[in-house]
Amino acid sequence: MRHLITTCLLMLPLTFSLLAQTPSTLKVQGQINDGTSPTPGATVLIKGEQRGTVSDFNGEYKISAQPTDTLVISYIGYAIVEEPVNNRSLINITLQEDATTLKEVVINAGYYNTTEKERTGSISRVTASEIERQPITNPLEALQGRMSGVNITQNSGLAGGSFSINIRGRNSIRADGNEPLYVIDGVPYLSQSLGDIQVSNVLGTLPSSPLNHINPSDIESVEILKDADATAIYGSRGANGVVLITTKKAKVDGSSFKLNINSGFGQITRTMKLMNTEQY
Q1: Which uninterrupted H or E stretch holds 280?
Q2: CB-hemisphere CA count at 13 Å for 245?
Q3: Residue 256 carries which DSSP code?
Q4: What is the rounded distance in angstroms from the CA atom of residue 141 to the CA atom of residue 121?
Q5: Is the CA virtual torsion 237, 180, 121, 117 positive or negative?
Q6: Where are the alpha helices (DSSP H) in the chain?
Q7: Coil, helix or strand at residue 21
Q8: Pairing of strands 181-184, 219-225
Q9: How wide is the angle at C-alpha 226 spanned by C-alphas 222 and 232, nearest 5°?
Q10: Spatial separation of the C-alpha atoms in residues 275 and 280, rounded to whole Å
Q11: Who contacts 167 (Cβ-Cβ below 8 Å, separation ≥6)?
Q12: Is residue 91 a contact partner of residue 105, using CB atoms and an 8 Å limit?
């Protein structure tokens, strides 16, 4: 019994020493600005953890961190900043504009081109690199599930079937009054042309989409205007949104040859049980 008490007493200083070496949590605070004014809505995260906060209207933030942690500050249009805590409780951050991400991306907004930084409307964009990775025949298939507020459904399961697009919900009680305006290389196409019975499939009963005649590999980008900017540019024709399709242009470069081959097969998993001739 005496030996056990002695052992416990010897372990107490070691326990106290370990507790003393554990870093204490700091209440880190400060202000985030762009050099001239506060930056509200900037994201402040602890590097390597799913924990963070957002700066308020005055650009101020508060977060709990360890002295050895690193703060990661990010904001749209500005370069990401990593700032070590280093036992500091007050850390002010000045963000710098990230020109490489905003000025290089050119967005087709209809009658003019703009950048991600200068655009004022809600524009979603899908590039050629995303379209080429999908084995599709209709460009609209590449947009399914890739744009917020854009609902794309195929009207039939037959080859060459047309697609219906609803941008931010239905705007008309008529079945044919919710299609957006399609513009291909600056040339408008009426939405009614997508359901023209003259462009029919093999059965000749359901209309197919003329967009099937556009090779998805020839498309450079697809932009969709989803808000009032569409009507400001195209008038009432853009009331249901505008789909802008830009095809690839010739470039001054060396000769090149690219070949893409896609193949597939289908198999019926289950068939109906039918009577034979004698049973019938």
Answers
A1: none
A2: 22
A3: -
A4: 24
A5: negative
A6: 2-21, 99-102, 128-132, 228-234
A7: helix
A8: unpaired
A9: 105
A10: 6
A11: 149, 150, 151, 180, 224, 226, 240, 241
A12: no
Using a 10 angstrom Cβ sphere, with 0-12 exposed, 13-18 middle and 19 or more buried, the burial of residue 226 is: buried
Query: Which helix (H) or strand (E) is 138 found in, with range?
Result: none
Residue 78 has what pLDDT? 85
Sequence-separated contacts (24+) of 188-197 with Cβ below 8 Å: 188/234, 188/237, 191/240, 194/162, 194/163, 195/162
**Predicted TM-score of the model (pTM):** 0.51
d(CA 230, CA 232): 5
In angstroms, the CA 236 to CA 251 distance is: 36
Cβ atoms of residues 25 and 64 within 8 Å: yes
Helix residue spans in 82-241 (DSSP H): 99-102, 128-132, 228-234
Q: Which residue reads 């590999």 in tokens? A: 217
- Non-local (6+) Cβ contacts of 101 within 8 A are 77, 116
Per-residue pLDDT of the chain (280 residues; tens, 9 = 90+): 445 444 444 444 444 444 444 457 889 999 999 888 888 889 999 988 888 899 998 899 999 998 889 999 988 878 889 999 988 989 999 998 876 655 556 666 666 677 666 667 778 888 887 787 777 777 788 788 878 888 888 777 766 667 778 888 776 666 556 778 888 888 887 555 444 444 444 444 455 566 777 788 888 888 888 887 778 888 887 788 888 888 888 777 778 787 877 777 888 888 888 999 999 9
* Helix/strand/coil for 213: helix
- Region of residue 48 (phi > 0: left; psi between -120 and 50: alpha; otherwise: beta): left
- What type of residue is 127? T
